[in-house]
Amino acid sequence: MENRKAPTFALSIAAIVIGVALFKQIDFQTFRAEKPALSIVYLVTLIFILYVLIKEGRKKKA
User: Fold this and answer.
1) What's the burial of 42, exposed, middle or buried (CB within 10 Å: 0-12/13-18/19+)?
2) Close Cβ partners of 29 (under 8 Å, ≥ 6 residues apart)
3) What gap in Å lies between CA 17 and CA 23, rounded to an integer?
4) Angle of CA points 6, 56, 20, to nearest 5°
5) pLDDT in tens, 2-58
6) What is the 3-state secondary structure (H, E, C) of 26-57?
């Protein structure tokens, strides 16, 4: 049981860091990104991490 906490914690920290980086990339006055390609990479990575975290969370409840 202790073994499963470390990956979840690491992925949570990674999601926060990537989310903040994505947030900083977007100019909300013009709704454009400074570097669109990098923003897409951030977004895809963030979605993947959130998917894995939600999947693990549902697995723990069952």
Assistant:
1) buried
2) none
3) 10
4) 70
5) 566 778 899 999 999 999 999 999 999 999 999 999 999 999 999 999 999 999 888
6) EECCCCEECCHHHHHHHHHHHHHHHHHHHHHH
In this prediction, residue 61 carries a pLDDT of 73
Alpha carbon separation from 22 to 11, 16, 50, 53, 57 (Å, rounded): 16, 10, 14, 19, 24
Q: Which of 62, 61, 18, 60 lies closest to 43, judged by CA?
A: 18
Q: For residue 25, what are its two tokens?
A: 């990339």
Residue 34 β-bridge partners: none
Residues of the domain holding 46: 2-61
For the chain, what is the domain count? Answer: 1
